[in-house]
Records
---
Amino acid sequence: MTNNAQNGPGLWVVVPVKPFNEGKSRLAAHITPQQRRALNRELLTRTLTAINHAHLDAEILVVSRDTHALAAAKRAGSRTLPEESQPCTPNDTESEPQLNAALTQAARHAAAHGATKLLILPTDMPNLTAADVRTMAASRGPEPQITIAPSRDGGTNALMLQPALAIPFAFGRDSFLRHQRLAAAAGIPVHVVQSDSLLFDIDLPEDYRLVFNHHS
């Protein structure tokens, strides 16, 4: 009993955050560096707010290389994990090795502290709701299972793994298909969740204007 109390809830929600001045690099030619930093800070705030409003029995863990992001997460009441440095490969368009390495680090940390289920929520979804978070976190029984919310371009916007280290992370281009293949190879059933708010992420200038037109 004591160990369980120390380990806490089995669900951990992991929020990976790129440095505020690096995130959303595709928008760099369209908005100022200050706007980009403000956008990435706002996206983190919105994501943590949606998670908190979901009222889950869960630990919330923000993993980042950015001390500003980690400080903001701490102020919001989240656990934080400084991301271990990885070799930078900015030209890798198929996957995001730095993100996947950070998620692997976070998943191992969570599993070592009692996580039996992991929900990955990147900060790309500005319209994320508490209901989305609850839907993604829901389990259909205790057996191994995976829930995926695809992005509009075939990527993965949110991912739930039960157990926490069920499959390797493969975020990046075509990751919706890659995650499904990894699940199939592991013999784990996949549940796909689609909602407008989970599907919509900020990738292009028009996405930014749609959500943050008051900043333009």
Note: The first helix runs from residue 2 to 7.
---
Amino acid sequence: MKAFIWILSLIAVGLGLVIVLAGPGTRFGYWEYSTGLDMMFKAARPITIIDGVVSLSPVFTAAGLSLAGAILAFILRAGKLGIFAMAAALFAGSAGMVPMKMRELVQNNPFIHEITTDFIDPPAIIAAANLPRKNPAEYKGEERVHNSEQTVAEAQREAFPGIEPKFVVGTVDENAEIVRRVIEAMDMEILSNAPTDNGWLIEATYTSRWFGFIDDFVVRLRQEGAMTRIDVRSKSRVGGSDLGANARRVQEFIEKLEAATS
């Protein structure tokens, strides 16, 4: 019986590790991002056991069985085994919540992978245009969203109506320095920071810690009278849905910019 509990616990740990290591494996080039995501969701997605009656998630089932094994181990007075089985159950259950949370974010956000404050003339991705990417550098606001009648621009307007250009007092040069500091404070790497014919353009990238996904982040500043108009664009280089990450990044940038210029 103790051997069976060990096996159940190790299976739980193994499935948890599949989810946890899916990200680093992608980040360090051991497999494609699509493979890493597939690993995660296969470990957590319910598998039909009896059609229309019983479906079980591998990682959560293993966590539950490991928890039952822990209780049995304590009854058998195998304390160390019980502690290991309990830890295995908690580890697997916690890991399994990650793809579940990601699925929830997919459902609660439009299936898009970029955000802009200017739909007509979005800030251009120039410095990073030719770097490795699946999604083109050009803005595709008129394309239809997957499984939707809306365009990318329409989906953004509906989901994130508060994302708009920001107007601040001062010159482009003055505000460009503030923008640069805000970008760096958000743990982004600046690729280009230079004046243009009619303003200033700052290009940066954000790299996610787990999967290593790279998103382009562009801020354009233009003088309009005594004010500087600041437009922002954030775009994922891979993937169809960004789970709302680009919108959250733009919103965070605007909040920090407001605080820095108030």
Note: The radius of gyration is 23 Å.
---
Amino acid sequence: MKTSNLALSTALFAYCFAWPLSAVAADNAAMQSDVVRLEHGWAHIVYQVKDQSAQLDQIDALRKDAAQVAQHYPGHAEPLIWQGIITSEEAAIASVFTALGWAKDARALFEKAEKIDPNALDAAVPTSLGTLYYRVPGFPVGFGDNDKARQYLEHAVAIAPDGMDANYFYGDFLFQQGEYAKSAKYLKHALELPAHPDRPVWDAGRRAEIRALLAKAQRKLASAS
């Protein structure tokens, strides 16, 4: 993971100075293992669990697990990001009465991760914040804001031009705005990216979503011509 934030770099140096490098490496390896476990758990629930009630039960359990992981590795953006992703997924699955609360919690987690490393995990922070801002209802119901969404998503594809999620969610946002040609451009690019053999369930599921959305954008373009 790239870490360019000066404050984080200084903190990391102080940590390395205080502890043997082998201990730091072991801690980072353990954190990476926990993050991968959260990634795979999320992908299984989203793409392989079909019953909505089972999905909600499992994503709620995974959210609690993610909170413990993030608490165990303070000062790291990656666990916070996955805690936020899982929390936002619970917002998407939950009832309308609780969804906004989970969305607000997810936003707070992403903003916390943003202060640590805004570029972590292929621009996951601006991608996730941008997605929340265009999918959550606007005032007076929620905090949705298309201007903020565009700003975050444009930033995401700028710093991660080959990030599949950055391209997909920006393409989805553009589709929602009626910008079908531009949407198709980013969706096509997302499909051209190499497969992720380390995340096969997510890769296959996301590509299916991208193909479906691209087909919709192309139909819109065809009907307008």
Note: Residues 16-117 form one domain.
